[in-house]
């Protein structure tokens, strides 16, 4: 079925509104819905049939009138799986590795992380924690239910330890000098209780720095980046809503940054210290966000129509069309457009994903080495940050398909 777009206008279903878990005071109203999206996008599925049968859920994006927090209020965490079958690392990309290394170096430098104790909540495969510990001879403790011990790297067990579970203050973490939480908070709908747990982990110390990194939602809403709206990401932050969340739990934001082609929002905060927030500037930011939310349904519908027209016309002309990026953005792109039958392969640089199938449409995941045999005419790149790297890889294989990037 290629015709029916999955994205629809907001309805007035029972999940049309709720109280905001981030500021605890505003009301959230639904402004955008996508039906039938796979509930996991990074999961490794061994057959096309299993991939097509993967459970589906609903996205109902709502925005808080008060703090600008955006969330999928139809999110049901029982439907998502984070396990060793969850393969999300971007560490095979040289572009991403360079960004990661630079970020770790900056944090070690800025916060004097040498001979310190570091906790990472949601550490994935542990790459970033290893970097932070190696750079400053720090000790590390990482939490992640999808942690895979077998892929351990440079440092010895006693210097960096991992717990393959969700972080919780019941683990009685000893005092940390630095707490990192990268690309994790967006997977949690009950944001308030989660930050409360983080606060427990700093034991009331006001010199412990908490570093948070999440996708930046102003870009997603402003550019209608519908590929960045997927089931695992239930929570979407702007600088204003992330600062509000931290302050609600007694933190003060020391530094805010937007990086990686405007895709990542980071804050560094500490408990009790830091400057007074500029509430007038924050109110303006929330007002601008509300305007973007109001126009989003129309703008995103227009953008999706342009992509559908482009891909259908090329498929009708006999072109072989692939996407580059088989993870979350790829699943969101394909499931939002409903063009599964026209695109049957997705390229991925992560060799651990090769040969598996994408949840939802069941596209086969191929490696760059497979491309000469596939002879693609057109590749839609899911993240423009990787365009140069991809172009170089294609040229190296003597291929020159037309490229488009989201
Ligand atoms: Zn709110």
Dominant shape = globular
Total of domains: 3
Q: CATH topology of the largest domain, anyone? A: Rossmann fold
The number of distinct helices, counting runs of at least 4 residues, comes to 10
Per CATH, the class of the largest domain reads Alpha Beta
Backbone CA Rg: 21 Å
Please name the CATH architecture of the largest domain.
3-Layer(aba) Sandwich
Supply the CATH superfamily name of the largest domain. Vaccinia Virus protein VP39
Helix share bin: 25-40%
Name the bound molecules. Answer: zinc ion
Count of distinct strands: 18
Summarize the helix and strand pattern as letters: EEEHEEHEHEEEHEHEHEEHEHEEHEHE
Cα separation of the termini: 23 Å
The portion of residues forming beta strands comes to 15-25%
Q: Structural class, please?
A: alpha/beta
Largest sheet: 7 strands, mixed
- Can you list the strand order of the major beta sheet? 8-7-6-9-10-13-12
Rounded average pLDDT: 90
Stretches where pLDDT is under 50 for at least 5 consecutive residues are: 1-13
What topology does this entry show?
Layout: E1 7-8, E2 17-19, E3 27-38, H1 48-52, E4 56-64, E5 70-72, H2 94-110, E6 117-121, H3 127-136, E7 139-143, E8 160-163, E9 178-182, H4 191-201, E10 209-215, H5 217-222, E11 235-236, H6 239-248, E12 251-259, E13 264-271, H7 279-316, E14 321-324, H8 328-337, E15 345-347, E16 364-366, H9 371-374, E17 378-381, H10 387-396, E18 402-405
Parallel strand pairs: 6-7, 6-9, 7-8, 9-10, 14-15, 14-17, 15-16, 17-18
Antiparallel strand pairs: 1-3, 2-3, 3-4, 4-5, 5-11, 10-13, 12-13
Helix pairs in contact: 2-3
The structure holds zinc ion.
